[in-house]
Amino acid sequence: MKIIHVTNYFRDTHQHVGGAEQAAFRTAMLAWKHNCSIRVVSTKPDSRANSPFEVIPLPILEDYAPRLARKYLEAAKWYSVQYDPLARRRFRAVLNADPPDVVHFHNVQFLTLSLLSQAKRAGARTILSIYDYWLFCPTVMLVDTKNGFCRKAHGHWCIDCLPPTLRVLQKVLLAARRTVIDGYLPLVDRFHVLSEHSRSVLERYGIPPNKIRVVPLTLPMEFEDLTVSEDPPDPGMILYAGWLNERKGLHRLLEAMPAVLAAHPQARVTAVGGKVKFGDAYVERLRNIMKAGGFSDRVTFTGHIPPSHMKSYIEKAAVVVIPEQYENMSPLLMIEAMVLGKPVVISRAGGIPEFIEHGVSGLMADPLKPEDFADKIGTVLGDPERARAMGRAARERILSKLDSELIWEKTRDMYTS
After folding, report:
1. 155 in Cβ contact with 178 (< 8 Å)
2. CATH class for domain 2-218+403-416?
3. With the C-alpha atoms ordered 133, 135, 140, 141, is the resulting torsion angle positive or negative?
């Protein structure tokens, strides 16, 4: 089977690597190990390519725009302008030169959904993986102004959730958003999601149930030996890993820290992850929380860490905290921490309860209540024996769910059924 994976960014090719990029890599690697021919189509590399796959760069309009204009082009695409003539033309040439059986789309906001039509014209089956809710919400979170789950999806009302800049342009783009994106969705043969909860979100939006497949991700290649370090963890290390943005919820962890430190003065946060575009205001918000609480010296920001180095950070942690602020499907960090036998404190949201048995294989907290996170973190730091027991239970639970051969069977069925 010949498969092309399409993604804005790709591991070992770009510096911008988060959960979605890791997921694309793992899915490609799984098919490659089962003798499929794999090519990857992405934006222009910004780091030295070291990928095991052929990575074909597509030009996009932003490559040729002045620096100031690039941000606005990206914002326009993010909101609703899902057409890039340069990427579309080059992609057509790639497809014509060697037609694939399957084109698997991942996050493609900047390459644009317009590539779907080219894949269909080439006679390929089309798969679209959903890692967040960008298709239905410009903030990707599907959270309303009262911090509840948004059941209306995108529309002109989204203006209330967006940054207070360029309001006129935002309104114009939002007015067209649903029409534009919904116009591309019939070109998708199968929608790939990571949890049953996400299936329900897509069905509620109007995606036909027979087009949705729930297929979890395989374990990361760095963890394939499945060994757990015998070294004791750093007893005060609280690990956060994720982009520095609202939906990942680092602010909730920092809001919890005064209470955590009052009970556990040795506690400190290691925050792994980079800034996002238009994310300066959020980073300033984090600084203000730390300054007001007087614990700036108890937080270390590492910046982006290559995926190959994340295992060592997880192994050192006393507790891994994942304060997601939206209905996440199944955070990759959760899976990695569970595999390594680490206790997890995580938001009770989205598909997470499908993986965590509260009090047994991890602790879930109300995503909006820092005091709940403080209580759960304190439970782990204050009872190392219980923490080890939760870690063992987490490892056993996740390994039973993520059998690679079963996942491949589901993936192959998604590609061929």
Report:
1. yes
2. alpha beta
3. negative
Residue with tokens 């942690």: 317
Structure tokens at 148: 């509840």
CA-to-CA distance for 135 and 177, rounded, in angstroms?
A: 9
- CATH code linked to domain 222-401: 3.40.50.2000
| Average pLDDT estimate for 211-228 | 78
Residue with token string 């059924």: 417
Q: Taking the domains of the chain in order of start, what are their residue ranges?
A: 2-218+403-416, 222-401
pLDDT tens per residue, range 264-284: 999 999 999 988 877 888 999
Do residues 334 and 219 make contact, with C-beta atoms less than 8 angstroms apart?
A: no
pLDDT > 80? residue 41 = yes
Our measurement of the distance from residue 233's CA atom to the centroid of its chain's CA atoms, rounded to an integer in Å, reads 26
Neighbour count for residue 278 (Cβ, 10 Å): 14
Q: What is the pTM of this model?
A: 0.85
pLDDT, the chain, mean: 92
At residue 214, the pLDDT reads 95
- Identical fold for domains 2-218+403-416 and 222-401, yes or no, is yes
Helix axes 280-293, 250-263, angle to 10 degrees: 10
* Cα–Cα distance, 80 to 85 (Å, whole number): 15
pLDDT at site 226: 62
Other Cβ atoms closer than 10 A to 263: 13
One-letter-per-residue 3-state SS of 206-223: CCCHHHEEECCCCCCHHH
- Segment 105-114, tens digit of pLDDT: 999 999 999 9
